[in-house]
Design goal:
about 500 residues, about 10% helix, 7 helices, mainly beta, five-stranded antiparallel β-sheet, five-stranded mixed β-sheet
Amino acid sequence: MLRDEAVDSLVANGFPYSRKLFAHTSCVNALAFSSGDGRFLASGGDDYYTYLWDFHQEDVKIPIHTLHGPKGNIFTLAFSAANHYMYSGGTDETILKYDVSTLGQVESKGTQGPHRMLGSHDETIRAISCHPFQEEMFFSAGNDGRIILHDGRDNDSVRAQNTIQLTAEATGVQCHPTMEHIFATSDSRGDVCLRDTRMAFGPLSTRSRDGVVQRYVTKLTRKTFATLARAEASSITFNSDGSKLAVTMLNFYPTIYGLSDPHPLAVCTGKNHPDGTPVLLPERPYSNSCTIKNGAFGNFGMNGAEFYGAGSEDFRGYVWKVPSTERLADQRLEVSADDWASQDWSNTTAFTNGREEPCYIPVDLSTPHCYLHGHSSIVNSTLFHPHLLHIVTCGIEQDIVLHSASSTSPCAPDLQRTSTDVRTLDEEDHVDRAVYYRMLAGIESHDVESEVAAIRMFDHILREEGNTDVFDIRGRMGEDSSDDEPEHMSSDDDGNWW
């Protein structure tokens, strides 16, 4: 209790201190802390390297180990349950398995190639998630629509019995942190499902509904649009005890669900500043239209307070304080189809399964707990350390920003206060447009530094695609989309699905 009170006091003012961790030479896309105490941070990006940082050092500034082998951009990283292995995946369609069981035993910096390479997918690998208890088991999800359960005890061979084939790009897969048979998946059509391995895999004769035990409601409705919309679910993540699931939605807001509740509990909008004042033009609020984002829950080992963090295209990270599932469920609004049709909800977005179904208006977490500053371009990934009062963020730039609640910590004794200045996105620049087309054609911009070129390219993309409304581009779907299965399945006598 005393520790919880002390931590709560420290994070009350956010994470105003930081330092940059330099090693990468291109965009940094993926972050992962090692299982358990989070001693090691893995970072991977467009330079095809994974760097490992030791948070048991007294002053972490440089990586202690380098993993090589990918032939494409790295999008996902994961440590196994006991940290014997680390996996990476990305655009080269190959999962790389590294033996990191001796990591930290040798202090000198080293490099290492993969222990094994698994060509299990035919397109970009979007997510890897390791089983919470079984050291040799992990899941992978790819743009080929496949969700694959891998088992090193079978010599990492991939069989049809271990594969689910979705009808859309598989964008995410996450093992439940405490229930060994439960995992969640997401896809580019917006489907987010909770599944059971005992129903999802094995001979076709023993499978049931591809293992789906719950289908979360992700369709959006707005009175000013005649059709429903579905935002691409670009990534998913559980909180530490698995009671909540957060979905990062393209062209919409991060949305939080309760594990056993198909309807959303909250949306993290960031319409206000942390002090409660509204974000007004020309300031830019939270947005997610152009890049793949990965959010995360965090509680720093506390029993009470819980946070959710996400990157944004206004060049900041966001941290929201998330109330309990019970409190959010009490505050959520349920509106009948008749009331939705007859009353004025012109400025409201709700979730529903269809025009004749009830609408659910989740709690709007409009005021973030704090911003995460220190970036000059889009922030794509946010990750909380499991115990230390640190958050790490990365994105279009070549560095990782290590944020802290205090100016000193066991692994970083001399942190500086982060500037709160936010770079503005200027009007169209012909140089940005030229850099964009050169990079699109694979032509190097010798007159522009690589990081500056990446920032310029994404500045152009932001001007073209930024702040796109989900109803403008996803609002032309049919009314029958994916309604062939119920939103939840029957439970056993104890109220469980498994």
